[in-house]
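> call design_seq(struct)
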């Protein structure tokens, strides 16, 4: 099996962060903060977070904050719950959550909860189980889950459960692995996983593995490296990860690397990008690939970061 070209991927991520005028960086401009979360978490998983200047990152993140308390995808952009989570995640990586006005952010997120327990992404009102996960994950990282009605939030998520065991964006929406991660992640964080049929969901998830070893996001679709995260993290959270062939999946991810220039793509021989590089490395982390730090399947952050924030456990180096 080809090995993980870790140092090439670090170079790839660092070079993407420097690009300002490329076609890709212009396309990514509105989601810069989300891209920062992908890139910086990749660096942390590969043990290279110290290659970036913390003060520069913190200052850029803070400039994306809006007076409402929420964060935009870039400086001067409108706030959205997704970029608000990205901001908290990035600062969590650097153990810098304290620089935030936690109360203000928590009020912004809590203000997006609707009467039925669902969450909107921003003031324009689109509702999606992605936003339920984001709100719950963000508030848990800020220790402010008490700001929302957790019971209603959980009931809403459960109302998006389908007969096949999966979850969709809204009640009756088609099951999709991305939405399943969001619903299972939110249920895991709120201690509500006992309310789902793990065997039924486990079957749907393990059937996502195709002959080549990769995972797809729903039936009859092509495999994509990013589902190594969305599917695998869900299987781990419901304790059914042994239902897929882990070795074949690791090989699929490794076959999607650009060994010469770094980066990971959706499928072998396609163009690499930061999104697939992150979810490929995160997938390998879930597969316990040597040299990659363990990642928490619910919070989507390195385990040591989650231990520090949620459990208050600090890891000390003896060297
Ligand atoms: C902190 C990890 C983390 C996530 C934050 C934004 C979010 C919460 C979750 C997104 C979950 C999601 C819906 C992922 C799927 C993304 C994706 C590859 C969508 C593509 O959908 P289609 O229909 O692709 O274009 P398929 O593969 O079905 O053909």
């Amino acid at each position: 099996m080809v090995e993980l070209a870790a140092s090439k991927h670090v170079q790839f991520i660092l070079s993407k962060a420097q690009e300002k005028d490329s076609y890709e960086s212009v396309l990514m401009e509105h989601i810069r903060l989300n891209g920062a979360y992908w890139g910086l978490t990749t660096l942390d998983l590969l043990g290279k977070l110290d290659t970036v200047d913390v003060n520069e990152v913190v200052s850029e993140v803070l400039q994306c904050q809006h007076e409402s308390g929420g964060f935009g995808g870039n400086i001067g952009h409108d706030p959205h719950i997704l970029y608000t989570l990205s901001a908290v995640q990035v600062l969590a990586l650097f153990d810098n959550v304290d620089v935030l006005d936690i109360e203000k952010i928590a009020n912004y997120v809590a203000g997006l909860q609707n009467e039925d327990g669902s969450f909107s992404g921003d003031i324009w009102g689109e509702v999606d189980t992605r936003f339920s996960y984001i709100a719950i994950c963000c508030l848990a990282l800020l220790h402010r889950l008490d700001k929302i009605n957790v019971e209603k939030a959980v009931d809403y998520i459960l109302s998006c459960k389908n007969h096949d065991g999966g979850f969709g964006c809204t009640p009756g929406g088609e099951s999709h692995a991305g939405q399943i991660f969001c619903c299972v992640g939110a249920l895991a964080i709120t201690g509500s996983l006992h309310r789902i049929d793990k065997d039924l969901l486990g079957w749907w998830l393990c059937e996502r593995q195709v002959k080549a070893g990769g995972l797809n996001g729903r039936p009859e679709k092509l495999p994509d490296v990013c589902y190594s995260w969305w599917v695998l993290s869900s299987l781990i959270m419901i304790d059914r990860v042994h239902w897929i062939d882990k070795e074949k999946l690791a090989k699929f991810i490794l076959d999607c690397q650009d060994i010469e220039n770094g980066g990971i793509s959706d499928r072998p021989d396609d163009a690499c990008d930061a999104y697939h590089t992150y979810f490929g490395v995160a997938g390998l982390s879930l597969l316990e690939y040597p040299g990659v730090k363990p990642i928490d399947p619910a919070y989507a952050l390195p385990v040591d970061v989650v231990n520090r924030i949620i459990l208050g456990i600090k890891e000390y180096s003896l060297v």
